[in-house]
Amino acid sequence: MRSQTWKSCLGALCLLAAGTANAAKISFSEKGFIDIGGLVQAQYRIEQDAAGSGKDPSNDFLFRRARIILSGQFNDNIGFLVDTDVSYANGPGTVPNTPAAGAGGAAPTATGVFNAIYLLDAVATYKVSKEFTLDAGLMLLPSMNHNGLTSGSKYASVNNFTQYFSPNSQRGTRDVGIEIRGLLLDDRLYYRLGVFNGVQSRASLPAVPPVPPATVGTAAQPGINPGDAPRFAGTLRFNIAGKEDGYAFCQVCFAKSPIVSVGVGADFQANAFRGTAFTGPSVSHTTGMGSWTTGNADVFADIPFSDDLELSVDVAVAKIWAGDDTPQSGLAIQGLVSLRFGVIGPYAQVEYFDSATTYVGKGNTAGNLTTYRGGISWYVYQHVYKISAEIAFQNREQAGNTIDGTAIPANHWVGTLQFQAGF
To answer: Cα–Cα distance between 204 and 68 in angstroms, integer?
Structure first.
């Protein structure tokens, strides 16, 4: 894709959403074209004690991402993006309680084979000006921090920060809806606001399930979001140096000048969640139906000291309100630093979640969690072809202990070797 095409492609929707370069371009008018691209991230992953024996490391070959990307524009105002990704379904021998090979069992299915292609993004865009662009369709949720809005091909690391949403309200950090975005105040303020489908309920899937015949006389358990309220999400970013105004951002940008910004965001879904607060061994109480709110704040900086020396820093804080004392409520602090020397980029990343739960043990094994990651990326040709290696270690609250007769999962490590090709 030529540089003049990038500038006309609806605020870099086509380039940044795909996260690729040199896509195949089909022009059908003076300003109309379609770009065809792809992204493959193939991994070898080794995980402590994850083999069938329970005491040997697992060895898996799988896809992290496998995308077919179509983007383009009719003219300077009308554009689109459609891309796919791969998911791994639950097959025989891949998950607990699913029979594998053996007497009366099904043949096991390898994780690298039992997968499916699904629609990841499908966005129709109308750009009035740089101050106002309208997006509609299946898209990234705008409430996420800079890390969550970064293109999957342009990370310094193998794994992006964890993002926090109400259950059953999104697909791969996306949701269907309508948003507006643009740059204001001499390109200093970037806004992105939208309303989305959120947690689904409808008459054919009743919010209050009927009482089964076997339990006549007992109260039905109410569902969630009986009025089918939508989700509201948005972000504001202040560009201190440079600017990012596209559909997706970069983390290692190979830029000629610094990009520095701070942002805040929020995601709100009414009647989205019924929480359980644990106070002792198998002792709990429900919090009732309530809203789920996530608030985000972050700082991002990509500073090129020269063509061969680039510093990337990404720090984020998230507060999750999902009922008092529930394991899902809490505070997340996440950070990454990467320093690229030519084609080699070592990095370190940490993610900490301080759960609001007051008890970890029998009935609830989810508590505080810290994940440490360290690795190195070899930018063979920037992000077009890249090889990354990472080691990660989890530190879980009460890990390896037995509390009130319940064993808490032990801490463990995961190693990943990833090969990326995108065009």
So the answer is: 33
Locate 132 and state its tokens: 């106002």
Element (H, E) at 351: strand 344-355
Mean pLDDT confidence for 32-42? 93
Average pLDDT of the segment spanning 55-73:
91
Q: Give the separation between CA 11 and CA 131, rounded to whole angstroms.
A: 10
Burial class of residue 24 in the structure, from the number of CB atoms within 10 Å of its CB (0-12 exposed, 13-18 middle, 19+ buried): exposed
pLDDT tens figures, 379-408: 999 999 999 999 999 999 888 888 888 888
pLDDT at 248: 92
175-199 burial, b at 16+ Cβ within 10 Å, e below that, comes to bebebbbbbeeeeeebbbbbebebb
Output the six-digit token pair for 159: 């794994």
Contacts of residue 235, defined as CB under 8 A and 6 or more positions apart, other chains included, come to 142, 143, 144, 149, 191, 192, 193, 263, 264, 265, 266, 296
- CA-closest candidate to residue 270, choices 319, 311, 230, 239: 230
> What six digits make up the tokens of 1?
């894709």
For 86-133, write each residue's pLDDT tens digit.
876 544 444 444 444 443 444 445 555 556 788 999 999 999 999 999
Return the structure tokens found at 44.
Answer: 């070898």
Residue 260's nearest CA partner among 231, 296, 220, 300 is: 300
Q: Are 363 and 282 in contact (CB under 8 A)?
A: yes
Helices (H), 274-358: none
Pair 17, 153: CB distance under 8 Å:
no
Measure the CA–CA gap between 294 and 169, rounded to whole angstroms.
13
> What is the separation, in whole angstroms, between the first and last Cα of the chain?
10
